[in-house]
Write a structure and sequence with these properties.
Helix content: over 70%
Largest sheet: none
Strand content: under 5%
Bound molecules: phenylalanine
Oligomer: single chain
Number of domains: 1
Structural class: mainly alpha
Order of helices and strands: HHHHHHHHHHHHHHHHHHH
């Protein structure tokens, strides 16, 4: 393999384009929908600290590893792993890592699309003034009505899958890049607006205390697993999404700096969402542990009670839908790239097949909450950390040092040594210990 190898799917037009796309993948429902509700279910501050630690110690080194592997392999994760395994003269079993990722992405997208569909339904609700002047009880009913209507959910789930696949089909620069340009700044501005509203609720300090004042007695083995799993989920790690984006990355871009930047932006968005939501939760006497409906039962109260709220509500949910699309495209990209590379099928057809399969599986989430819970647990808490563990070991201990060094091109020896140590020892050990802990090995 030569160092000048390019991806057959094209390349990002610039470093900025890659940052936008990777941030687009990272920032999504995970930050705005999932982070607040799992924080609420796991008791707040202590959970947040564990999650932040996981992002820093496990997430960032693995993100660097994943992007690096993608750029070196220049293909979909499955084929990249084959190439890199061969290059390193390693055991063929490493190939299965690519498969694990493709399957995880497909499973995640199936429910992701249903939840994004809820956000789409809320665009319409905001537009028609359903939130205006309503109290917590009515807003809750709006949400349970949607839950009770499979027809509506299927309609929006279908619309979302359709939108996602029409971005995936045109390919890297045509679709993926254009879609993410305006999103991040817009989302950021609206989150700030919601934070400003949260300040007026009278429970702002209580919300902040819930988020940032740790009470470790709230933490169980399972909450540690959830925090770690979420670090993978929110950074799009452990399943090849960031790897496949890395494979479209031009040669001369610093992977390490870019990764840190993406992780910081992602974390900031999640924390802002938490800061906006929990004051509303406490001010209106809602349950922090309300589960997956949390943002749908809190944010509309804010929109319903501020001037111009219907407009901000529409904008917010529109942006949330776009943030979800820019994540969804990366969930399915490894599978689509794999079909294109291995079978004589064009991107358009590959997108249609994959989209249909995902859509079908999504019906499970529409009809059963426990189906969603099982898939979520399996993917975010088990498959992504396991994938991440293997990626760390592969990058740190299987790939030849001269290759990883050349690919990362860090000017400073110490930086490389730190990354190598984290990825070869600390990150795998941390994931492994959390798994053992959950299995009850420590009693
Ligand atoms: N990171 C995305 C989010 O937070 C979800 C995602 C997970 C995307 C895994 C790609 C891969 O919403």
């Amino acid at each position: 393999m030569t160092d000048t190898k390019k991806s057959i799917h094209g390349e990002w037009s610039s470093r900025f384009a890659f940052i936008l796309a990777a941030t687009g993948s990272a920032v999504g429902l995970g930050n705005i929908w999932k982070f607040p509700y799992i924080t609420g279910e796991n008791g707040g501050g202590a959970f947040v600290i564990i999650y932040l630690l996981c992002v820093a110690v496990i997430g960032i080194p693995i993100m660097i590893a994943e992007i690096m592997m993608g750029r070196r392999g220049r293909q979909c994760p499955i084929n990249t792993l084959e190439t890199l395994t061969e290059e390193a003269g390693a055991n063929k079993n490493w190939h299965s890592l690519g498969w694990l990722g493709v399957i995880a992405g497909f499973l995640i997208l199936s429910y992701y699309s249903v939840i994004a569909g809820w956000a789409m339904a809320y665009v319409v609700k905001a537009f028609t003034g359903s939130f205006s002047g309503e109290g917590a009880a009515q807003i809750k009913t709006l949400f349970s009505d949607l839950q009770a209507s499979p027809g509506q959910q299927i309609f929006w789930h279908t619309t979302f899958m359709f939108a996602t696949m029409s971005v995936v089909a045109p390919g890297v620069q045509g679709g993926l890049e254009k879609a993410v340009r305006f999103l991040m700044p817009g989302l950021f501005v609206l989150l700030m607006l919601l934070v400003a509203y949260a300040m007026t609720t009278g429970a702002y300090m209580q919300g902040l205390a819930f988020l940032f004042k740790p009470d470790f007695s709230e933490i169980t083995g399972d909450s540690v697993l959830t925090a770690m799993g979420h670090a993978f989920f929110t950074l799009s790690l452990g399943m090849g999404a960031i790897m496949v984006y890395g494979s479209y990355l031009p040669k001369d871009i610093s992977i390490a700096k870019t990764s840190i930047l993406i992780a910081c932006a992602d974390t900031l968005v999640a924390l802002l969402a938490g800061i906006a939501i929990f004051p509303i939760v406490f001010a209106y006497g809602l349950e922090a542990s309300a589960g997956p409906g949390l943002i749908f039962q809190t944010l509309p109260i804010a929109f319903g009670n501020m001037t111009g709220g219907w407009l901000f509500g529409v904008l917010f949910f529109v942006l949330l839908v776009f943030a979800a699309i820019s994540s969804a495209i990366s969930l399915i990209e490894p599978a689509v790239a794999w079909v294109v590379e291995n079978y004589n099928v064009d991107r358009k057809k590959a997108s249609i097949y994959m989209g249909l399969a995902t859509w079908f599986l999504g019906l499970g989430t529409v009809f059963s909450e426990s189906f969603f819970e099982k898939i979520d647990y399996l993917t975010a808490n088990l498959m992504l950390p396991l994938g991440g563990l293997c990626i760390a070991l592969f990058a740190g201990r299987v790939m030849l040092q001269k290759h990883t060094q050349a690919e990362l091109a860090l000017d400073n020896e110490t930086e490389y040594a730190v990354w190598k140590f984290l990825v070869s020892y600390i990150a795998p050990a941390a994931v492994f210990l959390v798994f053992l802990h959950v299995l009850g090995v420590f009693g």
